[in-house]
Design goal:
Blueprint lengths: L23 H9 L2 H16 L7 E5 L5 H6 L7 E6 L2 H10 L6 H4 L2 E5 L10 E6 L10 H14 E13 L7 E7 L5 E11 L4 E10 L5 E10 L3 H10 L4 E9 L5 E8 L8 E8 L1
Parallel strand pairs: 1-2, 1-4, 2-3, 4-5
Antiparallel strand pairs: 5-12, 6-7, 7-8, 8-9, 10-11, 10-12
The structure holds S-adenosylmethionine.
């Protein structure tokens, strides 16, 4: 649920093209994903953790959905391999139809997708495992999250790194709705609505809505119930599962208090309304 800066344009606009049938994954990609940037960032984290990046690295993208990230990963070099796993056949089929064909045949052969549950299915061995867009927050009980983290630990090659993104701050402890206006693929608004927050369980219900210009708002296109795990809870659990070290990558701040899009390894963060951080746990 990363934010993107809307593109302002002063150019004279041509008559708008007729809208294509609504494609929820295309609008999701344009609202919350930046696969090429995210995969380059994962590689930077690996380098920062290990001090060196070998010529080829194997990524496993857990909760891969349409596996747009895996398709970007294999573009990093001819020895880069990606394994994706997701339990829902629908986004996997979408990725096979829309993203895989965009890759050259040679790169396509390095993308391996499994339909399965990260808690049950065999997990491919890898150098880097990633759980992005807060998907591990589907696991709302500590024992279940521990089972997942232990499986990730066991699936990593010696020295391998596990990266997860985490969001938090007081903003996520109450109901709210946030709108972002975007221009691609057609002018539209992305809405992230937080319907609830339960202070006893730390569970929060989120909905993603979209509104294309000239159309009614499409409500609840995606919905998730997440546990809002705190960074130290996650760090302690990862260490308990055997990881040697856990580092937090925290975003720098501009003069106006907004994030600057640069994450670096930090021991302490500053108090802010909402934040997005990355944890890197090394085996
Ligand atoms: C929020 S989407 C994230 C998609 C993608 N990782 C991204 O960065 O946008 C969550 C995905 O996790 C999948 N998922 C949920 N529980 C899962 C589980 N236990 N094992 C595998 N996939 C799961 C869902 O099917 C869904 O596609």
């Amino acid at each position: 649920m990363k934010k993107k800066t809307p593109v302002a344009s002063t150019a004279k606009k041509a008559a708008p093209a007729p809208l294509q049938p609504f494609d929820k994954y295309l609008y999701y990609l344009n609202s919350v994903q930046s696969p090429d940037e995210n995969m380059a960032f994962l590689r930077t984290i690996y380098l920062d953790q290990r001090g060196v990046v070998p010529p080829g690295l194997t990524l496993r993208e857990d909760f891969c959905g349409t596996f747009a990230n895996s398709c970007s990963w294999v573009k990093l070099g001819p020895s880069y391999v990606a394994h994706g796993i997701d339990l829902d056949p629908e986004p996997i089929a979408y990725g096979r139809e829309h993203y895989l064909p965009e890759l050259p045949a040679e790169a396509r052969a390095r993308v391996h997708i499994t339909e399965g549950d990260v808690l049950e299915s065999p997990l491919a061995k890898c150098d880097l495992a990633a759980a992005l867009n807060f998907s591990f927050c589907f696991f709302r009980e500590r024992a279940v999250l521990k089972r997942y983290f232990t499986r990730v630990f066991e699936s990593l090659n010696e020295g391998g790194v596990f990266v997860l993104d985490v969001m938090g701050g007081p903003f996520y402890q109450e109901t709210n709705e946030h709108e972002l206006e975007l221009d691609e693929p057609t002018p539209f608004s992305y809405f992230l609505e937080q319907e609830s927050f339960d202070p006893i369980t730390c569970e929060a219900r989120f909905h993603i809505h979209f509104k294309r210009k000239g159309e009614p708002k499409r409500k609840k296109v995606f919905s998730y119930t997440f546990r809002m795990w705190a960074l130290p809870e996650l760090r302690d659990l990862l260490l308990e599962c055997g990881f040697k070290s856990v580092d937090c990558y925290w975003e720098g701040t501009l003069d106006d208090g907004e994030g600057n899009g640069i994450w670096s390894r930090m021991k302490h963060g500053e108090d802010c309304d909402s934040w997005l951080a990355y944890l890197a746990a090394t085996r």
